[in-house]
Design brief:
The complex is a heterodimer. By secondary structure, chain A is mainly α. Chain A has one domain. In chain A, helix 5 runs parallel beside helix 11. By secondary structure, chain B is mainly α. Chain B has two domains: 485 residues, no CATH class; 49 residues. Chain B is built from 23 helices and five strands. In chain B, the strands form two sheets. A two-stranded antiparallel sheet of chain B has the order 1-2. In chain B, strands 4-5 form a two-stranded antiparallel sheet. In chain B, helix 2 packs antiparallel against helix 8, helix 3 runs parallel beside helix 8 and helix 10 packs antiparallel against helix 15. Classes of the chains: A mainly alpha, B mainly alpha. Strand 1 of chain A pairs parallel with strand 3 of chain B, so a sheet runs across the interface.
Chain lengths: 310, 632
């Protein structure tokens, strides 16, 4: 493994999450005719929280603080597992099911931490989080399985390696699976049509209300975890689209790597635009939105099956 | 005198069981590489065939599971029996438990059909006696009756299937049976259904949620952890590792497995009795194991090795895993029961501070059953996913490909439901505030009980971390049939180390600094004054969004009533009521049982008590036999 590549990857992983979260906020503010916070505001927030003291509910057990640490650890490990175009970071084991169940373990501890304080708000949102994750899980699984079908392997590394050599016929699978992943990411990340991260009322939120009892460094950990999760979920989506592009017109790997980072910002801009023009869906209508993601996953699978000429 | 009695009950009897379990583990390890047979000496004879035992590697796996769980049970039981003081006599309990464990071991080792049936009956009846230990409550009576009914049906189906099989193969020994051909479909279906009833596969699962909660917790651990696996062992023994089965049987098992997985976990989610929740989750996991078996049979039938290898290892591995973590969770529920004297989630809460060890082990078990890496549940679930994926890649039949992908999607939903179900179980029982006085006075259970749970939790972790090796061991077992064993090549150890390292660094960097200056304050209550336990979410409210999404299946209804002069802003009384029912029980089994009762009420008229009628029946019977003899 190339040390230079690894350092570059680590640097990207350090910088891109903060910038992505900042970009969404900034563009959203500009679209709403506000000046908006500086691009590095997420970093400032984390630094500020890091220095602060911490208040913990008197009902909490070790799970509350332990979960914050476990969550960020899981998210960082996942980031180090996922291959990036042709680059494979340190840890082996880039299996799609491993990826999905690692995400589930972060969610498991997130929900437990929310229930740990006995706060009705966080319990309410954690119950919604469980519901959303239940609905979105098959969408993610099917989108990724569609990609795996062509490669005959569930390892993301082999999938990407296969994708690079598959030719133009593979493009539809990549595009449709990418759409499925993007819609699922919006749900997974509690973005707009499903959850509004900026509302003022705890009762209407999912992700933010789960963190209602977190403070100081504990909250900082949760925010970092969120930005990293944002980056690799968008990153995975972008790589699907890029492979579609590559299937039609092969480009150099360096260009592809640059494009993959740019693509994340493009998706961030798209998210900001989406959040400006749409409103949060009523809770009972969220399943309909997630059904689109699931349908994309199913279409991707169908495309993969028929392309393979089974 | 009393003191000696205590010593016997508290130390000697459980100690002997522990010793025997260790012996069982040793025997299981011997059986891995050697085949040992034993035939009972002449006076012991079953009429048409001898009592025959055979220890091979397949039996060794289940013997190992049985021994591990019985060892924990022997540690756990004395403390648990304290809590049942006065309701069950320790003598009866131990005698029946010994009988139960011994008969399970004998069923696993049985080499011919009659030996199998004999010990199968002992197993069923001794477990039924344990379910019925407390016949004073109507709930227990109902549970015992339903369980007994289920065991009767299972045995009847098995007996019929075995007789038919004997007709076909002219042998009582399992080794002489071969269910590959089309003429064996009849006995195969009977036997599979008999095992399905005992294993609790959908739609025969209804006895589980009655029997498991009623039995003492260590017995539930044995029943759910081991006994229902023994039914699946039967399927494996007769079909998988003998000769394979026809495609119909494979598809039947796959179908029952898929439906069980969804149905079980969905109903588990909405339960409020902790042990009932665990019982329904057993239905889910039995479904997953059945999926593994079905994949094996499918692959074997179609000649696709990779599918068969993945399915076989998945079924064996998940049997082992589920036996361990479900026993762990049942023991955890038993610890709660012994400490708080209730298993109703709406009366629990906040046990985590009083019972830190039980919390830790219960979280481990829940994480394992939710298939979170790097615990053992993930490894076996991964194998099932891989098996299905191989079907999608290799089978070449468009319908089968589509079905395999659909089942992968369904398994993802099952995973999501299991996550919701077990976060609910942990969160409502152990976290937050105590919802009742009893829960607020909970104490950690006795050290041996903690140790019993700890042992199983460590085993769950070890099997997860060592999944590549365990997978290799299990595939050695089936390697005679495959050129390429399917091994879960998952970097579990690296993953666990990486997680531990990163989490440790993060803790030191971020949270250890503020550990000293941590401020304690009450949770945010929106400024309404101090939070109280009733403001917390209940199990019902946690599960409500999912339950209302799936209300047609659950028959879920919720009614809220808000009253008061200004009901919008200052309600005086808020009442919410949620109800659900099992569709299968109300729509299928209810009418079925009613029909049987109606029929038997009318049949009873035949027995009129008049000798004339009886003579008439005899005459009719003789005449119709004569006519039948002439015509046929």
């Amino acid at each position: 493994m190339n040390v230079g590549e690894w350092l570059l990857f680590a640097a990207v992983l350090l910088v891109v999450p903060i910038l992505t979260a900042g970009t969404i906020r900034k563009i959203k503010a500009r679209l709403q005719n506000r000046v908006g916070p500086p691009l590095l505001q997420p970093l400032y927030n984390v630094v500020k929280l890091w220095r602060k003291g911490e208040t913990v509910s008197e009902d909490a057990t070790w799970i509350f603080r332990g979960a914050a640490v476990i969550n960020l650890a899981v998210v960082l490990v996942v980031a180090a597992l996922l291959p990036w175009v042709s680059f494979k970071p340190g840890l082996t084991g880039d299996d799609i099911f491993l990826f999905i169940y690692l995400l589930a373990s972060a969610r498991f501890f997130g929900i437990l931490a929310a229930l740990d304080t006995g706060s009705p708000f966080s319990a309410f949102s954690s119950s919604r989080e469980a519901t959303l994750s239940l609905l979105v899980e098959p969408a993610i699984v099917l989108s990724l399985v569609a990609l795996a079908l062509g490669a005959h392997s569930t390892s993301l590394g082999s999938i990407f390696a296969y994708g690079a050599a598959a030719g133009p016929a593979a493009a539809p699978v990549w595009i449709v699976a990418g759409c499925g992943l993007f819609l699922s990411s919006l749900v997974e990340l509690s973005r707009m049509p499903v959850d509004d991260p900026t509302t003022h009322l705890e009762l209407t939120m999912v992700h933010e209300a789960m963190l209602i009892e977190n403070s100081g460094p504990n909250l900082a950990l949760a925010e970092i975890a969120y930005t990293v999760r944002l980056t690799f979920l968008y990153g995975l989506t972008v790589q699907c689209f890029l492979h579609a592009v590559y299937a039609v017109a092969p480009v150099g790997m360096t260009l592809l790597a640059v494009l993959s980072v740019l693509g994340i910002f493009l998706l961030a801009a798209g998210t900001a635009l989406l959040e400006t023009v749409t409103v949060k869906l009523k809770w009972t209508r969220c399943p309909e939105f997630i059904a689109y993601a699931l349908t994309m996953g199913l279409f991707a699978c169908m495309a993969a099956i028929f392309r393979g000429g089974v | 005198m009393l003191k000696y009695r205590n010593i016997i009950i508290l130390i000697l009897v459980p100690g002997l069981l522990a010793l025997l379990s260790c012996f069982g583990v040793a025997a299981a390890f011997c059986g891995w590489s050697h085949v040992a047979g034993w035939t009972a000496p002449p006076p012991v004879y079953l009429g048409v065939c001898p009592v025959q035992m055979r220890l091979d590697s397949l039996a060794a796996i289940f013997l190992l599971l049985l021994s591990l769980v019985s060892f924990s049970v022997s540690l756990f039981s004395p403390g648990y029996l304290e809590h049942l003081r006065g309701r069950v006599s320790p003598g009866f309990y131990w005698l029946t438990v010994y009988l139960f464990i011994a008969s399970m071991a004998a069923v696993v080792l049985a080499a011919n059909a009659l030996t199998f049936l004999l010990f199968w009956e002992v197993m069923s009846l001794s477990s039924a006696a344990l379910v019925a230990f407390d016949m004073t409550s109507t709930q227990a009576q109902k549970a015992a009756l339903i369980y007994l009914g289920a065991t009767r049906i299972a045995t009847a189906l098995l007996a019929a299937g075995f007789l038919w099989a004997h007709q076909l193969f002219d042998s009582w020994a399992f080794a002489g049976w071969n269910f590959g051909g089309p003429e064996t479909l009849g006995p195969s279906v009977l036997i599979v259904l008999g095992f399905a009833v005992k294993a609790g596969l959908w739609p025969f699962h209804i006895w589980l949620p009655y029997a498991h909660p009623t039995a003492p917790s260590p017995v539930s651990a044995l029943m759910s952890g081991v006994m229902i696996k023994i039914a699946l062992y039967g399927i494996l023994r007769l079909f998988a590792f003998q000769s394979g089965a026809s495609l119909e049987i494979a598809l039947l098992i796959l179908f029952l497995g898929t439906v069980s997985a969804v149905w079980g976990v969905l109903f588990a989610l909405v339960q409020r009795d902790l042990k009932r929740l665990l019982a329904y989750s057993s239905v889910e996991n039995v479904g997953l194991i059945a999926l593994g078996i079905g994949l094996y049979l499918y692959g074997h039938h179609c000649g696709l090795e990779s599918i068969a290898a993945a399915g076989a290892v998945a079924a064996l591995f998940h049997s082992l895993n589920h036996g361990l973590f479900k026993s762990l969770l049942f023991l955890g529920a038993g610890a709660i029961d012994a400490s708080v004297h209730t298993r109703d989630l709406s009366h629990l809460g906040g046990l985590g501070r009083a019972m830190p060890w039980t919390l830790l082990y219960f979280v481990t078990g829940s994480a394992a059953i939710t298939a979170l890496p790097p615990l053992n549940g993930f490894a076996s679930k991964w194998l099932i996913y891989q098996g299905l994926f191989q079907v999608a890649v290799d089978s070449g039949n468009l319908v089968h490909v589509g079905l395999a992908i659909a089942v992968i999607g369904i398994l993802a939903v099952v995973g999501g439901l299991a996550l919701a179900c077990f976060t609910k179980a942990v969160g409502i029982a152990f976290l937050g505030r105590a919802r009742s006085r009893a829960a607020s006075e909970a104490r950690e259970c006795a050290p041996p009980m903690v140790l019993a749970q700890g042992l199983l939790a460590v085993l769950c972790l070890c099997l997860g971390m060592g999944s590549p090796w365990v997978g290799r061991l299990l595939s050695e077992l089936v390697s005679g049939q495959f050129s390429q064993p399917f091994v879960p090549e998952l970097p579990m150890v690296n993953l666990a180390l990486a997680l531990l390292l990163v989490a440790g660094c993060l803790y030191v960097a971020a949270l250890a600094r503020t550990e000293r200056s941590l401020k304690k304050y009450c949770s945010w209550e929106c400024g309404y004054g101090r939070l109280n336990a009733r403001m917390q979410a209940t199990g019902e409210s946690f599960a409500q969004p999912i339950a209302s999404l799936l209300r047609p299946v659950l028959q879920y209804r919720m009614r809220a009533e808000i009253s008061g002069r200004d009901r919008r802003h200052f309600p005086e009384q808020v009442k919410a009521e949620a109800g659900m029912q099992s569709l299968l029980e109300s729509r299928v089994y209810g009418p079925l049982i009613a029909a049987v009762r109606w029929l038997s009420a009318h049949m009873a008229r035949l027995q009129a008590g008049s000798i004339h009628f009886y003579l008439l029946y005899l005459l009719v019977a003789v005449v119709s036999l004569l006519v039948a003899g002439v015509v046929l």
